[in-house]
Amino acid sequence: MVELLSNSSHLHVLLNHVPTIGFGLALAMFLVALARNNDGLKRTGLALFFVVATVAIATYVTGNGAESVIKGRPDVSQTAIRAHEDAALLAFTFMEVTGFFAWLALWQWRRVPRLAGWNVPVVLILAVASFLLMAKAATLGGEITHAEIRSAAEAIELGHQAFDRDARYYDLDPQKLLEGDALEPLLPDFKVQKAQDLFEAIGYGKVATRRVLARLVPGQAFREKLASDAAAVEPSGTARAIGLFVSGQTWVWPTCETLHFVGLCMLFTVVLIVDLRMLGMIKSVSFEAVYQLLPIGMLGFGINLVTGMLFFIGVPGQYVHNGTFFFKIVFVLLGGLNVLYFTLDDEPWAVKAGQDAPLTAKIAAASAIFVWVAVLFCGHMLPFIGNAF
Amino acid sequence: MDFLVYLEQSQFSIWVRESGSLFAFPGILLLHTYGMAVLVGIVLAIDLRILGFAPGLPLAPIGKFLPLLWVAFWINAATGTILLIADATTKMTNPDFFIKMGFIFLAVIVQRKIQSGVFRAPQIGAGALPPNAKILAVVSMTCWLGAITAGRLLAYVGPVSGLNLK
Question: pTM of the entire structure?
Protein backbone atom coordinates (compact mmCIF):
# COMPACT_ATOMS: atom_id res chain seq x y z
CA MET A 1 0.00 0.00 0.00
CA VAL A 2 2.75 2.41 1.00
CA GLU A 3 4.78 1.23 -1.98
CA LEU A 4 1.91 2.07 -4.28
CA LEU A 5 1.06 5.37 -2.59
CA SER A 6 4.64 6.51 -2.37
CA ASN A 7 5.10 5.97 -6.11
CA SER A 8 5.62 9.65 -6.88
CA SER A 9 4.69 9.13 -10.50
CA HIS A 10 1.14 8.01 -9.67
CA LEU A 11 0.84 10.62 -6.96
CA HIS A 12 1.94 13.45 -9.22
CA VAL A 13 -0.65 12.51 -11.83
CA LEU A 14 -3.22 12.34 -9.03
CA LEU A 15 -2.27 15.65 -7.40
CA ASN A 16 -1.26 17.82 -10.34
CA HIS A 17 -4.75 19.16 -11.01
CA VAL A 18 -5.33 20.26 -7.42
CA PRO A 19 -3.32 23.52 -7.50
CA THR A 20 -4.81 24.79 -10.78
CA ILE A 21 -8.42 23.76 -10.24
CA GLY A 22 -8.33 24.45 -6.51
CA PHE A 23 -6.88 27.92 -6.88
CA GLY A 24 -9.27 28.70 -9.74
CA LEU A 25 -12.18 27.69 -7.53
CA ALA A 26 -10.89 29.62 -4.52
CA LEU A 27 -10.28 32.70 -6.67
CA ALA A 28 -13.79 32.57 -8.16
CA MET A 29 -15.25 32.15 -4.67
CA PHE A 30 -13.20 35.06 -3.30
CA LEU A 31 -14.21 37.37 -6.20
CA VAL A 32 -17.91 36.56 -5.80
CA ALA A 33 -17.57 37.10 -2.03
CA LEU A 34 -15.95 40.50 -2.57
CA ALA A 35 -18.60 41.54 -5.10
CA ARG A 36 -21.44 40.55 -2.76
CA ASN A 37 -19.53 41.49 0.38
CA ASN A 38 -20.31 38.07 1.82
CA ASP A 39 -18.02 37.49 4.82
CA GLY A 40 -18.69 33.77 5.14
CA LEU A 41 -17.75 33.18 1.52
CA LYS A 42 -14.64 35.38 1.84
CA ARG A 43 -13.52 33.26 4.74
CA THR A 44 -14.15 30.04 2.81
CA GLY A 45 -12.16 31.39 -0.15
CA LEU A 46 -9.23 32.32 2.09
CA ALA A 47 -9.31 28.90 3.77
CA LEU A 48 -9.34 27.23 0.35
CA PHE A 49 -6.29 29.27 -0.74
CA PHE A 50 -4.50 27.98 2.36
CA VAL A 51 -5.54 24.33 1.85
CA VAL A 52 -4.58 24.32 -1.84
CA ALA A 53 -1.23 25.96 -1.04
CA THR A 54 -0.61 23.14 1.48
CA VAL A 55 -1.50 20.38 -1.00
CA ALA A 56 0.72 22.12 -3.58
CA ILE A 57 3.74 21.17 -1.43
CA ALA A 58 2.94 17.51 -2.09
CA THR A 59 2.27 18.20 -5.77
CA TYR A 60 5.64 19.87 -6.17
CA VAL A 61 7.74 17.26 -4.40
CA THR A 62 6.11 14.33 -6.23
CA GLY A 63 7.09 16.00 -9.52
CA ASN A 64 10.74 15.04 -9.24
CA GLY A 65 9.78 11.45 -8.53
CA ALA A 66 7.61 11.40 -11.64
CA GLU A 67 10.53 12.86 -13.58
CA SER A 68 12.92 10.15 -12.42
CA VAL A 69 10.45 7.52 -13.66
CA ILE A 70 9.84 8.94 -17.13
CA LYS A 71 13.12 10.59 -18.03
CA GLY A 72 15.22 8.73 -20.50
CA ARG A 73 12.18 7.59 -22.42
CA PRO A 74 12.62 8.35 -26.09
CA ASP A 75 9.32 10.21 -26.37
CA VAL A 76 9.97 12.42 -23.34
CA SER A 77 11.84 15.63 -23.94
CA GLN A 78 14.26 16.83 -21.26
CA THR A 79 13.62 20.38 -22.40
CA ALA A 80 9.88 19.96 -21.80
CA ILE A 81 10.54 18.58 -18.29
CA ARG A 82 12.89 21.47 -17.39
CA ALA A 83 10.42 24.06 -18.72
CA HIS A 84 7.62 22.49 -16.66
CA GLU A 85 9.80 22.28 -13.54
CA ASP A 86 10.82 25.94 -13.73
CA ALA A 87 7.26 27.14 -14.37
CA ALA A 88 6.03 24.94 -11.52
CA LEU A 89 8.65 26.28 -9.09
CA LEU A 90 7.68 29.89 -9.83
CA ALA A 91 3.97 29.14 -9.56
CA PHE A 92 4.56 27.13 -6.37
CA THR A 93 6.47 30.02 -4.76
CA PHE A 94 3.64 32.46 -5.52
CA MET A 95 1.09 29.96 -4.29
CA GLU A 96 2.83 29.47 -0.94
CA VAL A 97 3.12 33.23 -0.39
CA THR A 98 -0.59 33.59 -1.24
CA GLY A 99 -1.43 30.77 1.18
CA PHE A 100 0.55 32.50 3.93
CA PHE A 101 -1.18 35.85 3.44
CA ALA A 102 -4.58 34.15 3.18
CA TRP A 103 -3.90 32.49 6.54
CA LEU A 104 -2.70 35.82 7.99
CA ALA A 105 -5.96 37.44 6.86
CA LEU A 106 -7.93 34.71 8.62
CA TRP A 107 -5.79 35.10 11.74
CA GLN A 108 -6.30 38.88 11.86
CA TRP A 109 -10.01 38.49 11.26
CA ARG A 110 -10.38 36.93 14.69
CA ARG A 111 -8.69 39.81 16.41
CA VAL A 112 -10.35 42.61 14.47
CA PRO A 113 -13.92 41.60 13.59
CA ARG A 114 -13.52 42.44 9.89
CA LEU A 115 -11.06 41.67 7.12
CA ALA A 116 -8.02 43.97 7.38
CA GLY A 117 -8.03 46.55 4.58
CA TRP A 118 -4.58 45.89 3.12
CA ASN A 119 -5.06 42.17 3.06
CA VAL A 120 -7.74 41.92 0.36
CA PRO A 121 -5.72 43.48 -2.50
CA VAL A 122 -2.54 41.62 -1.45
CA VAL A 123 -4.24 38.22 -1.42
CA LEU A 124 -6.15 39.04 -4.61
CA ILE A 125 -3.10 40.11 -6.65
CA LEU A 126 -1.02 37.16 -5.40
CA ALA A 127 -3.85 34.71 -6.07
CA VAL A 128 -4.39 35.93 -9.66
CA ALA A 129 -0.63 35.75 -10.34
CA SER A 130 -0.40 32.27 -8.78
CA PHE A 131 -3.36 31.02 -10.80
CA LEU A 132 -1.95 32.29 -14.11
CA LEU A 133 1.53 30.92 -13.37
CA MET A 134 0.10 27.59 -12.28
CA ALA A 135 -2.05 27.36 -15.41
CA LYS A 136 1.10 27.86 -17.48
CA ALA A 137 2.97 25.22 -15.45
CA ALA A 138 0.08 22.80 -15.90
CA THR A 139 0.03 23.34 -19.67
CA LEU A 140 3.77 22.75 -19.90
CA GLY A 141 3.34 19.65 -17.74
CA GLY A 142 0.69 18.29 -20.08
CA GLU A 143 3.19 18.53 -22.91
CA ILE A 144 5.34 15.92 -21.21
CA THR A 145 3.58 12.77 -22.36
CA HIS A 146 2.31 10.32 -19.81
CA ALA A 147 4.59 7.51 -20.98
CA GLU A 148 4.06 5.48 -17.82
CA ILE A 149 0.38 4.89 -18.48
CA ARG A 150 0.45 4.00 -22.18
CA SER A 151 -0.48 0.57 -23.58
CA ALA A 152 1.96 -2.00 -24.94
CA ALA A 153 0.81 -1.37 -28.54
CA GLU A 154 1.49 2.35 -28.15
CA ALA A 155 4.88 1.61 -26.61
CA ILE A 156 5.87 -0.59 -29.59
CA GLU A 157 4.80 2.14 -32.01
CA LEU A 158 6.78 4.76 -30.04
CA GLY A 159 9.76 2.44 -29.82
CA HIS A 160 9.83 2.18 -33.62
CA GLN A 161 9.51 5.95 -33.99
CA ALA A 162 12.34 6.59 -31.53
CA PHE A 163 14.58 4.03 -33.20
CA ASP A 164 13.97 5.50 -36.67
CA ARG A 165 14.50 9.06 -35.43
CA ASP A 166 17.76 8.26 -33.64
CA ALA A 167 19.11 6.19 -36.55
CA ARG A 168 18.47 9.09 -38.95
CA TYR A 169 20.14 11.45 -36.47
CA TYR A 170 23.35 9.45 -37.06
CA ASP A 171 22.79 9.39 -40.85
CA LEU A 172 21.83 5.73 -40.78
CA ASP A 173 18.98 4.09 -42.69
CA PRO A 174 16.72 2.39 -40.13
CA GLN A 175 15.29 0.01 -42.79
CA LYS A 176 18.75 -1.13 -43.75
CA LEU A 177 19.83 -1.59 -40.11
CA LEU A 178 16.93 -3.95 -39.45
CA GLU A 179 17.27 -5.94 -42.68
CA GLY A 180 16.89 -9.69 -42.30
CA ASP A 181 17.18 -10.80 -38.67
CA ALA A 182 19.78 -8.22 -37.67
CA LEU A 183 18.19 -7.79 -34.23
CA GLU A 184 17.92 -11.52 -33.52
CA PRO A 185 21.43 -12.04 -32.03
CA LEU A 186 21.02 -9.00 -29.73
CA LEU A 187 17.73 -10.03 -28.10
CA PRO A 188 19.17 -12.17 -25.26
CA ASP A 189 21.43 -9.25 -24.22
CA PHE A 190 18.37 -7.07 -23.70
CA LYS A 191 16.54 -9.95 -21.99
CA VAL A 192 13.67 -10.08 -24.51
CA GLN A 193 12.25 -12.87 -26.68
CA LYS A 194 11.14 -11.09 -29.84
CA ALA A 195 12.12 -7.97 -31.79
CA GLN A 196 8.69 -6.56 -30.95
CA ASP A 197 9.45 -6.85 -27.22
CA LEU A 198 12.63 -4.86 -27.74
CA PHE A 199 10.69 -2.01 -29.35
CA GLU A 200 8.17 -2.17 -26.52
CA ALA A 201 11.04 -1.82 -24.02
CA ILE A 202 12.32 1.19 -25.96
CA GLY A 203 8.81 2.69 -25.96
CA TYR A 204 8.57 2.32 -22.19
CA GLY A 205 11.99 3.87 -21.82
CA LYS A 206 13.57 0.74 -20.31
CA VAL A 207 16.12 0.45 -23.12
CA ALA A 208 17.91 3.39 -24.73
CA THR A 209 18.01 3.35 -28.53
CA ARG A 210 21.65 4.37 -28.19
CA ARG A 211 22.52 0.96 -26.74
CA VAL A 212 20.76 -0.87 -29.57
CA LEU A 213 22.48 1.26 -32.22
CA ALA A 214 25.87 0.64 -30.61
CA ARG A 215 25.32 -3.11 -31.05
CA LEU A 216 24.04 -2.86 -34.62
CA VAL A 217 26.68 -0.56 -36.07
CA PRO A 218 30.26 -1.83 -36.13
CA GLY A 219 33.24 0.44 -35.55
CA GLN A 220 34.94 2.07 -32.58
CA ALA A 221 34.48 5.63 -33.91
CA PHE A 222 30.69 5.32 -33.93
CA ARG A 223 30.68 3.90 -30.41
CA GLU A 224 32.75 6.81 -29.10
CA LYS A 225 30.44 9.32 -30.73
CA LEU A 226 27.45 7.68 -29.02
CA ALA A 227 29.23 7.74 -25.66
CA SER A 228 30.08 11.43 -25.92
CA ASP A 229 26.45 12.24 -26.81
CA ALA A 230 25.26 10.31 -23.76
CA ALA A 231 27.57 12.28 -21.49
CA ALA A 232 26.39 15.62 -22.90
CA VAL A 233 24.99 18.03 -20.32
CA GLU A 234 21.23 17.96 -19.85
CA PRO A 235 19.33 21.12 -20.71
CA SER A 236 19.58 23.50 -17.75
CA GLY A 237 16.90 25.52 -15.99
CA THR A 238 16.25 27.83 -13.04
CA ALA A 239 15.36 25.01 -10.63
CA ARG A 240 18.55 23.14 -11.58
CA ALA A 241 20.60 26.33 -11.17
CA ILE A 242 19.18 26.83 -7.66
CA GLY A 243 19.83 23.16 -6.95
CA LEU A 244 23.46 23.46 -7.99
CA PHE A 245 23.85 26.59 -5.85
CA VAL A 246 22.48 24.76 -2.79
CA SER A 247 24.52 21.60 -3.23
CA GLY A 248 27.58 23.27 -4.73
CA GLN A 249 28.37 26.14 -2.33
CA THR A 250 29.84 24.81 0.91
CA TRP A 251 28.11 27.33 3.19
CA VAL A 252 24.54 27.12 1.82
CA TRP A 253 23.62 23.66 3.11
CA PRO A 254 24.82 24.20 6.74
CA THR A 255 23.16 27.64 6.82
CA CYS A 256 19.86 26.20 5.66
CA GLU A 257 20.15 23.36 8.21
CA THR A 258 20.71 25.84 11.04
CA LEU A 259 17.72 27.93 9.94
CA HIS A 260 15.67 24.72 9.65
CA PHE A 261 16.45 24.02 13.34
CA VAL A 262 15.54 27.56 14.39
CA GLY A 263 12.29 27.27 12.39
CA LEU A 264 11.35 24.03 14.12
CA CYS A 265 11.92 25.60 17.55
CA MET A 266 9.57 28.47 16.57
CA LEU A 267 6.97 25.95 15.45
CA PHE A 268 7.33 24.02 18.70
CA THR A 269 6.77 27.21 20.70
CA VAL A 270 3.20 27.24 19.46
CA VAL A 271 2.71 23.47 19.51
CA LEU A 272 3.69 23.39 23.18
CA ILE A 273 1.92 26.45 24.54
CA VAL A 274 -1.29 26.54 22.46
CA ASP A 275 -1.89 22.81 22.42
CA LEU A 276 -0.94 22.19 26.05
CA ARG A 277 -3.31 25.03 27.03
CA MET A 278 -6.10 23.21 25.21
CA LEU A 279 -5.14 20.05 27.06
CA GLY A 280 -5.46 21.92 30.35
CA MET A 281 -1.98 23.01 31.32
CA ILE A 282 -2.44 26.79 31.76
CA LYS A 283 -6.20 27.06 32.17
CA SER A 284 -6.00 30.56 33.63
CA VAL A 285 -5.27 31.83 30.08
CA SER A 286 -8.00 32.13 27.43
CA PHE A 287 -7.61 30.69 23.93
CA GLU A 288 -7.80 34.23 22.57
CA ALA A 289 -4.58 35.05 24.48
CA VAL A 290 -2.51 32.03 23.35
CA TYR A 291 -3.85 32.51 19.81
CA GLN A 292 -1.60 35.57 19.52
CA LEU A 293 1.39 33.20 19.37
CA LEU A 294 0.26 31.49 16.16
CA PRO A 295 2.20 33.76 13.73
CA ILE A 296 5.51 32.72 15.41
CA GLY A 297 4.71 29.13 14.50
CA MET A 298 3.63 30.07 10.97
CA LEU A 299 6.82 32.08 10.50
CA GLY A 300 8.84 29.08 11.71
CA PHE A 301 6.91 26.89 9.30
CA GLY A 302 7.62 29.40 6.51
CA ILE A 303 11.37 29.34 7.27
CA ASN A 304 11.30 25.55 7.21
CA LEU A 305 9.31 25.38 4.00
CA VAL A 306 11.83 27.62 2.22
CA THR A 307 14.92 25.86 3.62
CA GLY A 308 13.30 22.44 3.19
CA MET A 309 12.48 23.15 -0.44
CA LEU A 310 16.07 24.29 -0.99
CA PHE A 311 17.30 20.91 0.34
CA PHE A 312 14.83 19.18 -1.94
CA ILE A 313 15.78 21.17 -5.04
CA GLY A 314 19.46 20.79 -4.10
CA VAL A 315 19.48 16.99 -4.00
CA PRO A 316 16.03 15.70 -5.07
CA GLY A 317 17.40 12.19 -5.59
CA GLN A 318 17.72 11.51 -1.89
CA TYR A 319 14.09 12.37 -1.16
CA VAL A 320 11.98 11.18 -4.09
CA HIS A 321 12.25 7.45 -3.46
CA ASN A 322 12.50 7.78 0.31
CA GLY A 323 9.53 6.36 2.22
CA THR A 324 10.39 8.42 5.31
CA PHE A 325 10.18 11.63 3.29
CA PHE A 326 6.79 10.52 1.95
CA PHE A 327 5.49 10.18 5.52
CA LYS A 328 7.02 13.50 6.51
CA ILE A 329 5.05 15.27 3.76
CA VAL A 330 1.85 13.45 4.75
CA PHE A 331 2.26 14.66 8.34
CA VAL A 332 3.03 18.22 7.17
CA LEU A 333 -0.27 18.25 5.25
CA LEU A 334 -2.11 17.02 8.37
CA GLY A 335 -0.37 19.77 10.36
CA GLY A 336 -1.68 22.33 7.85
CA LEU A 337 -5.26 21.14 8.33
CA ASN A 338 -4.78 21.26 12.08
CA VAL A 339 -3.70 24.92 12.00
CA LEU A 340 -6.80 25.68 9.95
CA TYR A 341 -9.03 24.20 12.65
CA PHE A 342 -7.56 26.50 15.29
CA THR A 343 -7.78 29.51 12.96
CA LEU A 344 -11.29 28.97 11.61
CA ASP A 345 -13.36 27.06 14.11
CA ASP A 346 -15.43 28.99 16.66
CA GLU A 347 -15.24 26.25 19.25
CA PRO A 348 -11.71 26.84 20.62
CA TRP A 349 -12.49 30.56 20.56
CA ALA A 350 -15.24 30.09 23.10
CA VAL A 351 -12.66 28.87 25.65
CA LYS A 352 -12.33 31.69 28.19
CA ALA A 353 -9.79 32.07 30.98
CA GLY A 354 -10.24 29.34 33.58
CA GLN A 355 -12.42 27.19 31.31
CA ASP A 356 -11.82 23.64 30.21
CA ALA A 357 -11.57 23.14 26.42
CA PRO A 358 -14.24 21.04 24.67
CA LEU A 359 -13.36 17.48 23.65
CA THR A 360 -12.92 18.26 19.92
CA ALA A 361 -10.42 21.04 20.73
CA LYS A 362 -8.55 18.63 23.00
CA ILE A 363 -8.42 15.98 20.28
CA ALA A 364 -7.21 18.60 17.78
CA ALA A 365 -4.55 19.77 20.23
CA ALA A 366 -3.34 16.24 21.00
CA SER A 367 -3.23 15.40 17.29
CA ALA A 368 -1.24 18.59 16.60
CA ILE A 369 1.41 17.50 19.11
CA PHE A 370 1.45 14.00 17.60
CA VAL A 371 1.66 15.33 14.02
CA TRP A 372 4.58 17.72 14.66
CA VAL A 373 6.47 15.19 16.78
CA ALA A 374 6.02 12.80 13.84
CA VAL A 375 7.21 15.40 11.30
CA LEU A 376 10.34 15.92 13.38
CA PHE A 377 10.81 12.15 13.72
CA CYS A 378 10.54 11.56 9.96
CA GLY A 379 12.85 14.48 9.20
CA HIS A 380 15.45 13.23 11.66
CA MET A 381 15.24 9.65 10.41
CA LEU A 382 15.62 10.53 6.68
CA PRO A 383 19.23 9.26 6.66
CA PHE A 384 18.70 6.39 9.11
CA ILE A 385 15.46 4.68 8.09
CA GLY A 386 15.21 6.31 4.69
CA ASN A 387 18.03 6.34 2.20
CA ALA A 388 19.01 10.02 2.26
CA PHE A 389 22.65 11.11 2.34
CA MET B 1 44.16 12.78 25.34
CA ASP B 2 44.66 9.24 26.68
CA PHE B 3 41.50 9.64 28.69
CA LEU B 4 39.58 10.80 25.60
CA VAL B 5 40.81 7.76 23.66
CA TYR B 6 39.78 5.55 26.61
CA LEU B 7 36.27 7.06 26.56
CA GLU B 8 35.97 6.76 22.81
CA GLN B 9 37.11 3.14 22.76
CA SER B 10 34.80 1.98 25.57
CA GLN B 11 32.21 -0.71 24.81
CA PHE B 12 29.44 1.84 25.22
CA SER B 13 30.98 4.35 22.80
CA ILE B 14 31.51 1.64 20.23
CA TRP B 15 27.87 0.57 20.59
CA VAL B 16 26.67 4.16 20.12
CA ARG B 17 28.84 4.65 17.05
CA GLU B 18 28.91 1.33 15.33
CA SER B 19 26.02 -0.92 16.39
CA GLY B 20 23.75 0.40 13.64
CA SER B 21 20.82 0.14 16.07
CA LEU B 22 18.17 2.86 15.74
CA PHE B 23 18.36 3.23 19.53
CA ALA B 24 22.07 4.02 19.39
CA PHE B 25 23.28 7.10 17.50
CA PRO B 26 20.02 7.87 15.61
CA GLY B 27 17.83 7.54 18.72
CA ILE B 28 20.12 9.53 21.01
CA LEU B 29 20.41 12.31 18.45
CA LEU B 30 16.61 12.24 18.02
CA LEU B 31 16.16 12.82 21.77
CA HIS B 32 18.70 15.66 21.52
CA THR B 33 16.61 17.23 18.73
CA TYR B 34 13.31 16.88 20.65
CA GLY B 35 15.02 18.35 23.70
CA MET B 36 16.18 21.31 21.63
CA ALA B 37 12.69 21.86 20.19
CA VAL B 38 11.08 21.93 23.65
CA LEU B 39 13.85 23.90 25.37
CA VAL B 40 14.40 26.56 22.74
CA GLY B 41 10.68 26.57 21.87
CA ILE B 42 9.68 27.60 25.41
CA VAL B 43 12.64 29.99 25.70
CA LEU B 44 11.58 31.73 22.46
CA ALA B 45 7.99 32.09 23.65
CA ILE B 46 9.14 33.69 26.92
CA ASP B 47 11.72 35.97 25.25
CA LEU B 48 9.38 37.13 22.49
CA ARG B 49 6.64 37.78 25.04
CA ILE B 50 9.06 39.88 27.13
CA LEU B 51 9.97 41.80 23.96
CA GLY B 52 6.31 42.71 23.51
CA PHE B 53 5.01 40.06 21.14
CA ALA B 54 1.55 38.58 21.92
CA PRO B 55 0.74 41.33 24.45
CA GLY B 56 -2.60 39.72 25.30
CA LEU B 57 -0.85 36.68 26.74
CA PRO B 58 -0.04 37.15 30.44
CA LEU B 59 3.53 36.17 31.30
CA ALA B 60 2.94 34.72 34.78
CA PRO B 61 1.10 31.52 33.66
CA ILE B 62 3.88 30.79 31.13
CA GLY B 63 6.01 30.18 34.24
CA LYS B 64 4.27 26.80 34.48
CA PHE B 65 6.30 25.72 31.46
CA LEU B 66 9.61 26.36 33.23
CA PRO B 67 9.89 22.84 34.75
CA LEU B 68 9.30 21.38 31.26
CA LEU B 69 12.05 23.66 29.94
CA TRP B 70 14.50 22.27 32.53
CA VAL B 71 13.48 18.66 31.88
CA ALA B 72 14.33 19.26 28.21
CA PHE B 73 17.60 20.91 29.26
CA TRP B 74 18.69 17.90 31.33
CA ILE B 75 17.65 15.45 28.58
CA ASN B 76 19.95 17.36 26.28
CA ALA B 77 22.73 17.51 28.83
CA ALA B 78 22.54 13.71 29.17
CA THR B 79 22.21 12.90 25.47
CA GLY B 80 24.85 15.53 24.66
CA THR B 81 27.26 13.87 27.10
CA ILE B 82 26.72 10.48 25.43
CA LEU B 83 27.31 12.00 21.98
CA LEU B 84 30.46 13.67 23.33
CA ILE B 85 31.88 10.48 24.87
CA ALA B 86 31.25 8.52 21.68
CA ASP B 87 33.23 11.05 19.70
CA ALA B 88 35.51 12.46 22.39
CA THR B 89 38.80 12.95 20.53
CA THR B 90 37.21 14.90 17.65
CA LYS B 91 34.78 16.99 19.70
CA MET B 92 37.24 17.94 22.46
CA THR B 93 39.75 19.17 19.90
CA ASN B 94 37.19 21.21 17.95
CA PRO B 95 37.11 24.91 18.99
CA ASP B 96 33.53 25.09 17.70
CA PHE B 97 32.46 22.66 20.44
CA PHE B 98 33.74 25.05 23.12
CA ILE B 99 31.96 27.96 21.42
CA LYS B 100 28.75 25.93 21.68
CA MET B 101 29.38 25.18 25.36
CA GLY B 102 30.15 28.88 25.96
CA PHE B 103 26.83 29.94 24.44
CA ILE B 104 24.94 27.36 26.52
CA PHE B 105 26.74 28.38 29.74
CA LEU B 106 25.82 32.02 29.15
CA ALA B 107 22.27 31.10 28.12
CA VAL B 108 21.75 29.14 31.35
CA ILE B 109 22.95 32.10 33.47
CA VAL B 110 20.60 34.44 31.58
CA GLN B 111 17.72 31.96 31.92
CA ARG B 112 18.24 31.85 35.69
CA LYS B 113 18.31 35.64 35.80
CA ILE B 114 15.05 35.81 33.81
CA GLN B 115 13.47 33.35 36.24
CA SER B 116 14.58 35.21 39.34
CA GLY B 117 14.22 38.74 37.94
CA VAL B 118 11.05 38.38 35.88
CA PHE B 119 9.04 35.38 37.02
CA ARG B 120 9.73 35.63 40.74
CA ALA B 121 9.43 39.43 40.83
CA PRO B 122 6.36 40.61 42.78
CA GLN B 123 5.21 42.88 39.94
CA ILE B 124 4.74 40.01 37.44
CA GLY B 125 1.13 39.53 38.53
CA ALA B 126 0.43 43.11 37.45
CA GLY B 127 2.10 42.43 34.09
CA ALA B 128 5.01 44.78 34.76
CA LEU B 129 8.57 43.91 33.77
CA PRO B 130 11.86 44.88 35.43
CA PRO B 131 13.89 47.40 33.36
CA ASN B 132 16.59 44.92 32.28
CA ALA B 133 14.11 42.23 31.15
CA LYS B 134 14.28 43.15 27.46
CA ILE B 135 18.08 43.07 27.44
CA LEU B 136 18.01 39.64 29.10
CA ALA B 137 15.51 38.41 26.49
CA VAL B 138 17.69 39.57 23.58
CA VAL B 139 20.84 38.02 25.11
CA SER B 140 18.93 34.80 25.80
CA MET B 141 17.71 34.49 22.22
CA THR B 142 21.15 35.32 20.82
CA CYS B 143 22.83 32.68 23.00
CA TRP B 144 20.40 29.88 22.12
CA LEU B 145 20.54 30.70 18.40
CA GLY B 146 24.33 30.81 18.72
CA ALA B 147 24.33 27.41 20.44
CA ILE B 148 22.13 25.90 17.68
CA THR B 149 24.38 27.38 14.97
CA ALA B 150 27.60 26.22 16.62
CA GLY B 151 26.03 22.79 17.23
CA ARG B 152 25.02 22.35 13.62
CA LEU B 153 28.42 23.52 12.41
CA LEU B 154 30.12 20.76 14.46
CA ALA B 155 29.41 18.56 11.46
CA TYR B 156 31.26 20.92 9.14
CA VAL B 157 34.11 22.83 10.81
CA GLY B 158 37.23 21.76 12.68
CA PRO B 159 37.96 18.04 13.01
CA VAL B 160 34.88 16.25 11.68
CA SER B 161 34.34 12.60 12.51
CA GLY B 162 32.41 9.98 10.62
CA LEU B 163 29.82 10.16 13.39
CA ASN B 164 28.48 13.46 12.13
CA LEU B 165 25.92 12.78 9.50
CA LYS B 166 25.18 15.87 7.51
Answer: 0.82
